[in-house]
Structure formats: C-alpha cells, structure tokens
Amino acid sequence: MNPVFINSVGLAAPGLMGWGEALPVLLSEQGYRPAGMPKLVPAMLPSNERRRATRTIRLALQACQEAMEKSPYRAEKVSSVFTSSDGDTELLDSLCTALAKENPVLSPFEFHNSVHNAPAGYWAIATGSHSASTSLCGFDGSFSCGLIDAVAQVAVESTPVMMVAYDQPLPPPLDAKRPLVAPFAAAFLIGPQPGEGDLAQARLRISTAPEEEDVLHDPELERLRLGNPAARGLPLLMALARKTQGGNSQDGNSQERVTLPYQNGSRLIVELAPC
Amino acid sequence: MTLMRPLKISSYTLTSGLGRGREATLRGLREETTGLRPNDFEHAHMETWIGRVDDLEDQALNGEFSQFDCRNNRLAKLGLDQDGFREDVAAARRKYGTARIGVFIGTSTSGNNQLELAYRRRDPDTGELPADFLYETTLNMYSAPRFVRESLGLEGPTQAISTACSSSAKAFSAAYRYIEAGFCDAAVVGGVDSLCLTTLYGFNSLNLVAPNPCCPWDPNRDGINIGEAAGFALLEKPSPGDRGLALMGYGESSDAHHMTAPHPEGLGAMISMKDALARANAKPGDVSYINLHGTATPSNDALEDKAVVEVFGTGTPCSSTKGWTGHTLGAAGISESIISFLAMENGFMPKSLNTREVDSSLHANILLREKEGPVNLTMNNSFGFGGNNCSLLFGKLN
Q: Do B182 and A1 touch (CB under 8 A)?
C-alpha cells in the first residue's frame, strides 16, 4: 500500500486542549496533569445546531475543528470517519429512564441526537461537506478501527479524510458497567498526496503476531490511555509530536513504529516517516 | 471518480418479518404476503404495524455465547443459521485463513432493548443496573460484529458501522476498501437491527410512525412501520470465469442540511446515486430496477422521487419493499440489497406492496404490480438521519 500523509491534528482532553498546549506533554518535556475541561463551543455550527449540540457532539467537533483550521485542505472536499466506543451515553441514559415509565414520552431532539452518527451529521452541517461520512465502533479497539478505515479510504479513493476518535465518561448508572476516566477526542486530517505542512507520512499494517502494544511511561498519561478508548491513540500522537520537532524516535531512527491495540488477537502497526 | 473492481457475492441470507432465509423471503415477495403485523411488541403501547421476527423471545443464546444474549444477537444467530451461510463462510475460511476475512456489520441500536429492560430492573435504592446486564457484549455497538466474528470463527478486521438507516449499506463500501487496500481478502458484510422501545417511541416522537401498514409513494402515506432483520453476504474478489452476483458500484454522501429532514432538493441522494453509477462506469439507462429507500413518510418519498427522476428520468422501474419488511433501520441496506439479489436471480421486480396509487405529485416509475423479466443491474438506496446517504449498484459477473 502507498503511504498516506498525516497533515494536521486536533486534540481535546483535560489538560490537553489543542495540539499546541499538548506538545510539551506529548514530547515528554512536562508531566501530564489532568485539568478541568472548559465548556466547548462549536463555533462552526449555525446557531440552531449549536444550541442542540450535546457534550459528546461538542467534544468530537472541537478536535475536528482544530485539525481543519490547521490544514490547507478545503473542508467541503474532505470525507469523514467518526469512531467512538460508547457514543452519547448521556442521551442513552435519559431515553432509557423515560422508557422505563408507563406511556413514555421521548424528546425528539434527544432521539435524533442519540444516533451514533449524530456528531458526523453536525460536522457535515458545520462544513457544508457533501462528501462521504461514516461512523464506527470497535469497543476498546475503536481508535484503530477508525484509523484503518480512514487510511483505506484515503488510499483506495485517493481523497482526504478527517478521522476523529472520541469518547467521554458515562453517567450513572452506566459508569459502573463501563468506567472511563476522562473525555478525550483526537482528530487527524489525512491526505493521499503530500500536502503543505504535513506532519508525517504513514503506512499501516495489521499484525497477528504476538507483539506488545506501546505503553506510556508517564503514569498519569498511561491512566488516560487505558481509561478512554479514544486515548489509545496517544502513542501515535506522541510519535507525531516528535516528528514535528524534526526529531527521531527514542532510538535515533528517522522511521518510527507505533504499535496500537486493535482487537482480540491483533494489533495495528503504524510506521511513520518524515515528509 | 475512480472505477471500482467488482466484488463477487458468493453467499447471502436474510431473516426478517417476512421469514427465515432466502426461500421464505422469495415466497413472501412472489405471493405478496406482508411480514408486517399489528404492533405486539412488549411494553410498546402504540397503534402501528411492525415487522417482528417470530420466537426471538424464547431463543436465549447459551453456552460460550451466553454473554452475548440479547434480542439483537439472537436475531443475528437466527440469521447466520439460514441458507448454509455458516458452511459457505467455513469454506472461505479454509481458502483465505481466519485472519484474512473481515467482518463489517451495520446496526443502529445494537442491544438497546437489553438496556431498556435493565432500566426497568434498577435497584430502587441505589439506582444500580442489575448485575446480569452485560454492557460490552450486548449494548455496545461492537457487540453485533463481535458476535458474528466469534460465531463464524473469523479473526480479520471487524467493525460496527452505525450511520442510522444507511449502516448496513455502508458495510459493502467499507469491505470493498479494506479488500482493495489489502487489509483482508474477503469479507462478511451485513446488518442486524432489532425492535426496541427507543426506536418505536423515538420515531413516534417525531410523528413518523404510521398507524396502518406503510404505503410508500401513495398519496395517503403517513409514515414508517419499524421492522427488524439480520442479513449477511460473503464478498470476495472474483476469479477469472466466475459468474453470479457482484457489487459493481457504490456512492456515499452527506446532505449537510439537517439532522432528520432530508435535503429539500435531494442533493445528497443524487450524489450517492451518480457516484455509484460512475464507479461502475454505468449509465442510468443500464439500470433495470431501483430498490428505493422509500420509507413512506411524506417528505422522504418526495425528496427521493425528485432525486431519482433527476438522475434516471421517469422510466426506470422502482419500488420500495418496506411494505413487506417494514423499515429495518440499520439492517435496511442489507435487507433490500438481498431482495435485489433475489430479483436478479429469479427474473422479477417486486412491486411497492400496500401502495394503491401513486401520489400525483411524484413521477418515478413505481411498480404497482410485480414485473417479470431479466434484471441485470439494480440500484439500492439507503438514507439515514444525519443526512447520511449510500447507494449500491449490483450486477452480474460475465
């Protein structure tokens, strides 16, 4: 497979609000200190949609918006791949609470916002893009699912794709069944040809050999990685951060290899090279 | 638009309100018996018709699969048990190896019904969910593809696709890209969506549920009937000399207009249909039959009519088959694709069941009677909330 080109990144997580703020942590120059999340405002949305956008939608769009703004690509020409393990569980809780009563009445907005592709629908409205859009889930492997799906689309259709992975902690009583530690969203704009400002070129390979996934040395960051399916992509973000510094991997090689969890019995290998 | 290489459809099966497996589905279509019934779904107190699959209530999953037990995965199992599909996948497994066959499953609500039932059993003091409610293997969207993967003994790339009512149509395009990019050599694609209170009451809150059997394109159409279905197909690269059904093209688009209302000019629908034709290097006149999304809501049918007439004119025979199955939501794409496969293999085009006359403001060539004759190339439309559109083009290898 030909390489693809990672052009820009967007990030939204406690203490990692945006690529610029996150860089010292991703470069291991600074320890990770989780902070509170600011209230996110999806400025690209028309006012009606902005009002109706849930926390989950705002989280995903925040990361997309940053990646889009940093890229020379035109938003209306970019396809999208949204991936999330758990989706909008605040709405799910609200709907199921209502449905447990006799003669339930549901809010139509809550219902249509509860579809797994709601953030993607809002993103299409925000960008005016008529391009293809998909919404995926692979439980704890959701990040790798989204990345593979996006790269396959970039390579086969020769089109730029925005891939965003996002998840946030579940409300009670669901949190007892699925404990996530913090919100996390990461977006990657990936192109089929070299583009202005590319961070790195990448090749993907699925491995079924018994290989260990990359772990993080900073215990707080490792807790985040394991505590949110979207944050399983942190090793890739850290490798990309090193590439932006013109730096090599920790063993001095200009090629860098990242091993991410994928699904039972397989891992995703991302090979990064400078542009 | 780059041309696509056709993908062979080596096996397929459908279970819906219309029946279990291909033969029952074909019989229902040819004898014009509906799979809809007056609503009798537990805890759903509303006047409508539904496409319910019989006996799921009594078919708990057990043994190694008991952790997956929920209505959606029971339906998936029932679907996988039909038409020798498991045997066909086993043969593909021997040919390609387990790690080289991907699994792409569309679902919009996965095990939601399991959660709805669990919310009725919350601890009255603490609000906790019952201990026997299993989040990962029933509710999570990945539960359905993981159940299919483990049931069929596959280890290739596996994912849930959840784009509302276009979900399982998009399983075909995802599988094509994975195969073409070299991530797998073959794929099980399909969709499973089962009845739940969230969709029944949710669509009702939007005033989209019809009290009577749905009647697409009829001047009196007044909404959808919700159905459930599990459908699967096995896709492979064709070998020289192969004959039979194939995926010839696909088109995907976004309306970028509104979360629930379709684009007023049908723009997204036009783009997805045109792209599907372009990928196959086909002309509108090459298409024998269009299986419409045809939900039977006033606005959806009107916009799809506009888009179909714009792309195909008023001559191409079309029908919506939701009068047979109901709207199976995330499983609509695979269900209606399989109805098209049966039409191609048996030389007939199903009519729009329940449609008594065509709304005079609509101009597509809606079949009010079944039409006999060769069906060589079919288009299948699936459109979902969030303005997510997918059109598939199926034909025959020769």
A: yes
